[in-house]
Amino acid sequence: MDNNVKLYALSTCIHCKHTKELLDEKGINYDYTYVDTLSGDEKKDILEEVKQYNPKLSFPTLLINEQCIVGFKKQEIEEALQGNASK
After folding, report:
1. Is pTM beyond 0.85 here?
2. 87 falls within a domain
3. 25 found inside a domain
4. Within 10 Å of residue 46's Cβ, how many Cβ atoms?
5. What range does the domain containing 61 cover?
6. How many structural domains does the chain have?
7. Which residue among 7, 24, 39, 60 has the highest number of C-beta atoms inside a 10 angstrom radius?
8. Residue 45 lies in a domain
9. CA distances in angstroms from 24 to 11, 13, 30, listed in the order given
10. Could you give the 3-state DSSP secondary structure of residue 45?
């Protein structure tokens, strides 16, 4: 199953790193943005985008098929990748 996966992360964040490692381990295709490496309007635009899903602007913010998971919550991420089969 193809998931639409987007990760908003900080390059220095250990939880963001774990989230990326989990997605890589599972062979998931995903887009990611290191928000802290952006500047100017690009950074402002991305922060506005993240705020729509996660008003607290905490990281990692992970979108899986429009489902937002904030933080490294391994089980929640795995369930979302499986299409919420257990719900």
Report:
1. yes
2. no
3. yes
4. 15
5. 5-81
6. 1
7. 60
8. yes
9. 16, 17, 9
10. helix
